[in-house]
Here is the input.
Amino acid sequence: MPNLEHPAYPAATLLHLESLVPCRESQVSVLLSIFGERQQFTFPSIFIYGHTSSGKTYVMQTLLNTLELPHVFVNCVEYFTSRLLLEEILIQLQSCCSETEQTSHVPCDTFNDFVRLFKQAVVSRELQDQTLYIVLDRAEQLREMEANILPAFLRLQELTDRNVTVVLLSEIVWELFRPNIGCFEPFTLYFPDYSIGHLQKILSQNHPPEYSADFYAAYINILLGVFYMVCRDLKELQHLAVLNFSKYCEPVVRGEANERDTRKLWKNIEPHLKKAMQTVYLREISSSQWERLQRDNEEPGQLKGLSAHTHVELPYYSKFLLIAAYLASYNPVRTDKRFFLKHHGKIRKTNFMKKHEKTSNHLLGPKPFPLDRLLAILYSIVDNRVAPTANIFSQITSLVTLQLLSMVGHNDQLDGPRYKCTVSLDFIRAIARTVNFDIIKYLYDFL
Here is the structure.
């Protein structure tokens, strides 16, 4: 028995709509009851909110397109000023009913101009007999615009005296929207997060035709068992499902197992899912590079310069400055001669190790160092001569701004500024790989 019923729309259309929006039947049913029939006036404004990937945008687009309701759909991040937003609504409104007629750009500086032009557009396009829906996606950006924009959109039906409904889609609650002076209260509708059962049902619908639905559903069950606690984003889970399915099928393709041999299939996919767990949301490497790593059974870190959170986009000398800062923070001062002078003689580590130095410097944390020591190490590790220009000093300031370095003490100290390096060992090793510098050879703890 279908969940969606409405006398104004054919049963076949509603059945098709229900198949397009799985696990959102209750929200669609509420929206249908609010919309009513095409010619009926509905709520002046509707506020739909929910977390990322809860289906707000997709459900609204699918609902309006499937029922062929006249609408305008605008992303407030893309049209980030009031003028751009209002003009885009008018441009889409011009082409709402007629696809053959070319749209013309109409300047719209104020909301008064928008109301006047909106009335003209609705009359010329014969939209008085049915409700027009204006959907504003990422509506939280409206709070950054002029103070009158949000209250005016909420009362657009009253201001224009037309059958129009404004739908706001947002990831934050209405209480964070409400102006201090008050405004017209919209009808609010909450889209909850997908449960694990909903995700299982939605993801299982995309099974490849060459495999059975039960086989792909078992794979999705394994995938959700690994990732559900750390990731409930439907888009991210869809990406992970597509990315790792070929590895899951390998035993079946090679003839080592059948589709029902879940134990062998799990043993084959488990280490690869653990690798993928380290890069959820980050998109550290492209899909083709990840597939190549899967095929070669390599670690993600073995591909040089592919890690997004460790391969920060820094200038060439800024990377060496960060390496020099790390060496200055974690190496004792007395070891500088050993590491950075060519003719330092043979010095054994045990000869100059004090009792308090037996603990690893990495366990004790970074130590502050003066600017002179940082530059001295920099000149030693860079092959070509680096002049102490204003460019170098500005790059140090940039590293402090990026919180890769931290300044210790005050700027008015007579002996000059002192710094600490705040990055981790894995981070600095990845940075060093991008410039072909083996930092482990220069760290006292790894001698």
